[in-house]
Amino acid sequence: MRCEHYGKPLKRRILSRSGKSVGEWFALLAALSFASSNVMVKKGTTPQSRENGAFLSILLTAVISGIFFLGAGWFNGFPDFTSEGMLWFALAGVLTSFIGRILLFNSIQHLGSVRASAIKRLNPFFTVMIGILFLQETLTSFIILGMVLIFGSTVVLVGESLANWRNAKKEIAAAIEPSSPPQRRLVAKDLWKLIASLGYVYGIVSALAYSVGYVVRKQGLTEIPDPFFGTLLGAIVGMLIFGLISLFKEANRRSIISTFTEFKPWLFGAGVATSLGQIFYFIALQYSGVSQVALIASTDVILTIFLSAWVFKTQEGITRTVILASLVAMTGAGFIALGS
């Protein structure tokens, strides 16, 4: 009796620890998947590319999440669907599958996988801000420190790019004659394009869209507790909006056509990796706490640097400043996770 009395709690602790380990492994798989997607997008595009695989990625997310949804429903039963839950998931799709995904891919295309991954760490920064402003959440010292680190890393990255832009500006100014107004107007236009090509606006807006989208999706999960269905519906909404815009925008039409007529292995791999990353992330949340999962998933910055520099060799020009800013951003995300 005594062994049985002490054995049961021990067994429960072992099973609990085993479940947490499963969640931690899936969180690491999610980080690896997201890092692989970042690098493959960069590997398959250049800043001048007309197609970066965003629509293909959304399509693959719909297909893969649909398979998981049908499989889970077949064995475990389908959830009860509510109109409110579907509306929340649809809104989350607009924010994450459409705005967030497309701008993230644009950011990677123009900034490179490492810089874009570091900027993506603004997600928890914006999530905390949303919690404070709209959900009456409180700040802790860990969260404040994490926000400062993430914001500081972003400033460092933007500062480095602006310094490079100033050098380019001097080179352009030296290449023209001061007495030629038409050429000056042309150069000013080129400089504006150069600023826009930095891509930081894409990354910042993408991070904001993802942050709001995660909050909205959480509301949907309280109504329909099925993350696979939420991901599927969101991806379908993202594709519908993309298709609607294609009626008026040639770039979207070209992207849809090339998705079904051209096979681009790097972009296809990026789409698969992004979809699996989302699924692994959701599975990890079922076994481990949000803080632990977010902390492990934030290591995608380090994994992106490793894959970019030594595995895929994307030749992004990774400087010490970029590595430092990435490490600071990851540390900041970790502090926010620990303080949540």
Report a brief summary of the structure.
With 340 residues, the protein is mostly helical. The chain contains 14 helices and no strands.
Please, could you describe this protein's structure?
The chain is mainly α and 340 residues long. It has one domain. It is 84% helix and 0% strand. It is built from 14 helices and no strands. It has helices at 2-43, 54-76, 83-111, 113-120, 122-134, 141-174, 181-196, 200-223, 227-246, 250-261, 265-287, 290-297, 300-311, 320-339. Helix 4 packs antiparallel against helix 13 (300-311). The longest helix is centred in the first third of the chain and has 42 residues, at 2-43. The chain starts with a helix and ends with a helix. The model is unreliable at 1-8 and 179-186 (pLDDT under 50).
Kindly report the average pLDDT value.
82
N-C termini distance: 41 Å
Total number of distinct structural domains: 1
Order of helices and strands: HHHHHHHHHHHHHH
If helices are DSSP runs of H or I spanning 4 or more residues, what is the number of helices? Answer: 14
Query: Beta-strand level of the residues, as a percent range?
Result: under 5%
Structure class: mainly alpha
- Please state the CA-atom Rg, rounded to the nearest Å: 22 Å
